[in-house]
Here is the input.
Amino acid sequence: MKIKIIINTKGERILAKLKWDYSKLKGKMVEKFGSQRGFAEKVGISEAYLSQKMVGKRGITLDEIENWSAVLEIPSSDIGVYFFTKKVL
Here is the structure.
């Protein structure tokens, strides 16, 4: 599967608007921080902004993937499972 990276108006590299299944990522946030809100606070973003990313209204940047993986202690070998599982429609 090819992953398309685009540059947004802020110059950030983001994944193209594909449908990704973030259920495992959400579970990891809750496991580590008790809630998505707790995770959002830890990484310095609002819960609303995180929610927009989780439902696909905003793309997740490569920098965010790197940072969130470190905060959630996701090994690099497992990043694909958490961030690149295609949503089955």
Q: What stands out?
A: The chain has a mean pLDDT of 89. Strands lie at 5-7, 13-15. Residues 32 and 74 are 11 Å apart (CA to CA). The helical segments are 23-33, 36-43, 47-54, 62-71, 79-83.
